[in-house]
Design a protein that fits this description.
35% of the residues lie in helices and 22% in strands. It is of the alpha/beta class and 191 residues long. The strands form two sheets. It has a four-stranded mixed sheet, sandwiched between helices. It has a two-stranded parallel ribbon with strand order 1-2.
Length: 191
């Protein structure tokens, strides 16, 4: 908020109600493929772990481009590497995971020029990859599929991830990370 006016959006009334307990910014009920804002209405548009849920991800990114003014920016994160597909993707209703090249191509097709495109969550990558590949090799569990986070305490997970991402944030300011569980892209809206 210190950089300008903030508007939140979600397609879930419950999510908007929860967000309103945390901040007093305006909240819109909407869908990433039909954002209820005028064309070129914002300087920065963000989509954190949203695009992978949408059937037509290029159309979703193009809608982000529509509401972003020329010269404005988009910051987006998505899960990385299809070989990491697992129960958490199913529980989270993901449709896909991305490589750096795939995300870059979709961002460009939507009308953005990537300024920064990198993997992140690299510190946890070896452990996550080992668990996901091992589960696949021995066969995913049958029956009810549960979240990978069901066995942890949210506070501990959030605190740990905050520390990890703080370290990686400093790395990302200087370098593109070669692997990670996720991807981040900062892109500029073409004129």
């Amino acid at each position: 908020q210190r950089y300008g006016s903030v508007v939140g959006m979600d397609m879930s009334v419950e999510a908007i109600q929860f967000a309103r307990t945390r901040c007093n910014a305006p909240m819109l009920l909407g869908d990433i493929t039909r954002i209820p804002l005028e064309t070129a209405a914002v300087d920065l548009v963000t989509a954190f772990d949203i695009v992978e849920h949408v059937e037509d991800d290029v159309a979703a990114l193009a809608e982000l481009a529509r509401v972003c003014r020329p010269g404005g920016h988009m910051l987006v994160t998505v899960p990385a590497f299809q070989f990491l597909w697992g129960n958490q993707d199913i529980v989270s209703h993901h449709r896909r995971r991305y490589t750096l090249a795939e995300l870059g191509a979709r961002v460009r097709a939507a009308g953005f020029v990537p300024n920064r495109l990198s993997y992140f969550n690299a510190i946890l990558f070896p452990a996550v990859a080992a668990v996901r590949v091992a589960r696949r090799l021995r066969g995913e569990p049958q029956g009810e599929i549960k979240s990978d986070f069901g066995m942890t305490k949210p506070g501990l997970v959030n605190d740990t991830l905050t520390r990890i991402f703080a370290v990686e944030g400093r790395w990302l300011a200087r370098w593109r990370l070669p692997v990670g569980v996720s991807l981040v892209c900062l892109a500029e809206r073409r004129a």
